[in-house]
Amino acid sequence: MRLLSPRSSRPAIALSLLATLVACGGGAAPVLDSIDDQIVAVGADLTLTLRATDPDGDALSYSFRSDVPDLGERASIATTPAGTGLFRWRPLAADVGTWHFDFVASDGDHDTTVTVTIQVKSAVGDQTTPVFRQPLGSGTTLDLAVRQCLDLDVVVEDQDSPEVALTEEDPLIEGATLEVTSGLAAVWHWCPSREQIDAEDRYTLTLGADDGDNPKVPKNYLIVLRRPGQTNCPGTAPVVTHTPADESTVVDLTLDATITDDLGLKQPPLLYYSTTAPASPPDLATMAQTTMVLISGTMQNGVWAADVPNPVATQPAGTAANLYYVIVANDDDDDTGTCDHETQAPVTGTYQMRVTNPGGAGGLGLCESCSADVQCGDADDHCVRVGQTDSCLQGCTGVAGECPTGYTCSANPVSSVNGASGRQCVPTTGTCAMAPPCEDDIFEDNDTRAQAAANLPDLDPATYDFTSCPLADGSNDDEDWFPIILTADATVTLTLAGMAVSDLDLVLYDGTGTRLQSATGSTSNETISRCLTAGTYYVRVYAWGAGAPNDYTLTYARSVGACPAVCTDDRFEPDDNRDQARQITYGGFTQAGQICANDDDYFKLALFNGETVTIDLTFTHSATGDLDLHFYDSAGVDLTPCSEAMPATCTAAQGQGASSNERYSFTAPAACASLCTYYVAVHGWRSSQNSYSISILAPP
Are residues 431 and 387 in contact, defined by beta-carbon separation less than 8 angstroms? Predict the structure, then answer.
């Protein structure tokens, strides 16, 4: 990087693009922050933020000049709402080389220029780039019923570098640490907090490996938080329909299933697989994990598929192996909490199929997904790492016209996943993802809460035009985060309206990142309305699964007015169902608690036949503070049936009167000779909220 004085005498470079032009009076020149030299891969998005100030307070504009031939409109610069410059460029295969860019900040009378060297390198089959060897696969599952923390070994291989910089990239997972243990290894550690567990069940860890000579290599790794199962959740569980079948093939395996749900799935289903027989029941954390893709239908009734590497593709003809796998689907029936359903198919054990290598080549064409050279067309056609995916390419010699339109014969041999080397027809875009180019909005970078806080002013009530863009490799969509600052209590209404090309969802968070409310329907039209106290909040818009570029509007309306008193739950949460019930102490148990709307408190006890338990619930009754008692057996049967739908079944004898304080007594039947488990629940009638004290007198 070189910093040039205003109105430098350096010869102008071929191309000059101006974002805006603002002419102000004389005075001092702008101050433009330095920018590091860059290395970028073909097909990757290079985004640079230009930060400048003007001593005279003049408005600034940004422009750039470059010696890249035929750059045209493939690169752009714009002024963001925060007043910074935003430069974007996605190089093509023809751009491989080293280039100089002059970035200019102007106040209309004076210019300040920073020159940056940008090296463009091929993203196809380069043996000198770092390769992640661990963690394996695309993700893992943390079963919170088994363990509370996750440790991942991070290991890279680099043929010409003894040391590689390993980093965790944005969006960072709060509370996680990355400890470097050697030049090529580290350990990533995370114990998710209760707030993180309640907010999301899937987190994407993005790791980076930078050897200083090549573009930083990213690895996206999906971490699934598997919460302990809950009972009595609203709605019904997803239904997975799948019949395993043996296959004789050298190409990778596509496994599909039909999945239905009454309200729709929450996230794409997951497929776990292994070539060795798992334990019974299978430990999902020990199996390879991949995310399924919707190939037809909807989230309520759709066909989902996932590709699995062929375990015998590189083995001699006639070799056979078993593949074991499990499909897991989750819904989102509880729109205010985490009491949702999970279906694991099959119910017990795993699906099993036999895979046989019949010999011969797979015959896959250009840019089709692969895991071995033998799967591609001819002997000279290789399976090569292209961007972040392995794809079949076509051998070439450099003769004009031998590569199809959209492909270029590589200048040098490229390496395959099996170690073969040869020139190949590579996509000119640097990626096999054929998604159309997407021009993101000028509010970038706002892919995380931290970026939104650093780069964006808070939104004013209005309707805004934004764009949701897929990532360069087409594997996912970026997220858009926006800050909202309230100086007084107000009802905030957010309305999202997008196109049908992807499913956009809307989430509202408080200033600490705790999820307050979400709208996750099956379309790109969502609404959230909530009364908020004064403070900072964040709006998140994201695409559910991979999708196409989606232009959308976000309307923010605000109505100032005091919010009702907020109910703060007691310190014993979570205790909202039988699985989370508090264990009482015998002889005499007394405890104070708080019931908030739609939030029961459960207690667990055990009785032998003939033993009697007496429960006293003390509280001050009101129209919005009516509390009741319920008593359940171990199977979840309410022995004191009472509901808002059938109020006639509620009686004071059952602890469901219409005044202050409730009492209920129960004597265990003869069937409890070997001990029976029961549950006491404190319930707010018609979403009542109130503080209480409970006494449970059971035999010692």
Answer: yes
- Is the CB of residue 423 less than 8 Å from the CB of residue 407? no
Hey, how many other C-beta atoms are within 10 angstroms of the C-beta on 644?
10
Q: Which of 231-235, 239-243, 254-258, 382-386 has the lowest mean pLDDT?
A: 231-235
Are 294 and 149 a contacting pair, CB within 8 Å? no
Helix (H, G, I), strand (E, B) or coil at 540: strand
Contacts of 623 (CB under 8 A, 6+ apart): none
pLDDT at 644: 79
- Tokens 């035009």 label which residue? 465
What are φ and ψ of residue 314, in 5° steps? Answer: -95, 10
When comparing pLDDT for 448 and 613, which is higher? 613
Distance CA 494, CA 245 (A): 48
Least confident among 224-228, 383-387, 476-480, 592-596: 476-480
* Amino acid in position 41: A
For residue 198, give the DSSP letter: H
Q: Which pair of tokens denotes residue 115?
A: 């020159």
**Two structure tokens written together for 656:** 């469901």
Do 433 and 90 contact (CB within 8 A), yes or no? no
Query: 3-state secondary structure string, 427-442?
Result: ECCCCCCCCCCCCCCC
Per-residue model confidence (pLDDT) at position 434? 62
Task: Say if CB 689 and CB 596 are below 8 A apart.
Answer: yes
Torsion angle in degrees (nearest 10) through CA of 643, 646, 649, 655 = 30
Closest CA to 242 of 346, 336, 387, 360: 346
pLDDT for 547: 62
Strand locations in 267-412 (E): 270-274, 288-291, 293-297, 301-308, 320-330, 342-345, 351-356, 383-386, 389-392, 394-395, 407-409
Report how far residue 485's alpha carbon sits from residue 608's, in angstroms, rounded to the nearest whole number. Answer: 57
Neighbours of 608 (CB within 10 A): 12
Separation in Å, CA 587 to CA 605, 609, 613, 698: 11, 17, 10, 5
Report the percent of the chain where pLDDT is more than 90. 50
Residues 6+ apart with CB under 8 A from 654: 629, 631, 640, 642, 664
Pairing mode, strands 111-121 and 38-41: parallel
Separation CA 463–CA 465 (nearest Å): 7
Distance CA 319, CA 129 (A): 33
pLDDT digits (tens, 9 = 90+) for 177-202: 999 999 999 999 999 987 788 777 88
Phi, psi of 243 (to 5 degrees): -125, 115
Range of lowest pLDDT (51-65, 179-193, 430-444, 534-548):
430-444
Q: Measured between alpha carbons, how far is 642 from 632 in angstroms, rounded to an integer?
A: 12
* Token output for 180: 């470097």
pLDDT bin (cut points 50, 70, 90) of residue 626 is very high
Q: Which residue has the higher pLDDT, 502 or 288?
A: 288
